[in-house]
Amino acid sequence: MSATLAAAGPSLYWYLTRSTGAVAMLLLSIALALGVVDVQRWSTPRWPRFVLDSLHRNVSLLALAFLVAHILTSVLDSFAPIGLIEAVIPFVGSYRPFWLGLGAVAFDLILAVIATSLLRQRMGYATWRAVHWLTYASWPIALLHGFGTGSDVKSGWLLVLSVLCAALVAAALLARVIAGWPEHLRVRGAALGGAGAFSLFLALWLPQGPLGSEWARRSGTPTSLLPHAHASTAGGSKR
Ligand code: HEM
Prior knowledge:
The chain is an all-alpha fold and 239 residues long. It has one domain. The protein is built from ten helices and no strands. The model is unreliable at 1-10 and 231-239 (pLDDT under 50). Bound molecules: protoporphyrin IX containing FE (HEM). The site of protoporphyrin IX containing FE has 30 residues, from helix 2, helix 3, helix 4, helix 5 and helix 7.
């Protein structure tokens, strides 16, 4: 497999980075929605709780597998100088450091959530639950990372996929906020306010940010990798 990839050159890694990133984002959104279904204890005779439980766990683990593939292929792709360190320590690299750093933050949060879930029997419920809430923070951070550093934000398919993921997560959040109303009104209000503020931010930022002109330069791509400097480099068609 690796010989084939190496022979095909770095651009194959680049395609794999983009596709695994998109699939990971979709799986994370589905895992989040399934988590809400699970915590609400919704079940039917056809979908008993243990089935929903294991679906939630397995989709989360599949998302992690795609994330690992996403990170490894971005490191193996020789176009941009990205090391394994940048995948776990945020904001230390030279390639779009802020936007790649958000990916590292999201990855670290997801690692913490999955690790504590695998070790759940060995820790208190309150600790596990507090860490699990980080899922709600990791999702928008990962979305911003994809928009800020991805090559496909200007092509319709990534936007459509992102809107679908956002709709799924918004529906899950709404269901979570509505259930048990009006207990913990402050937390519910903060969740709704945060979601509204994030949507407004995206609507204002996207047109002048990743969808605007010269995003490759403005997002922190090293000058030597900008299209005019590297028109013929494999993978050089990155924005
Ligand atoms: C929860 C964690 C993460 C998620 C959900 C995620 C998802 C995504 C998505 C959706 C894209 C856009 C792909 C496209 O434009 O087609 C992307 C781009 C990218 N991600 Fe991540 N990512 C995560 C973490 C990371 C980490 C830790 C790294 C560090 C190595 C990384 C490296 C990259 C790179 C280099 C790109 C740009 C690929 C390109 O040139 O188009 N990602 N990611």
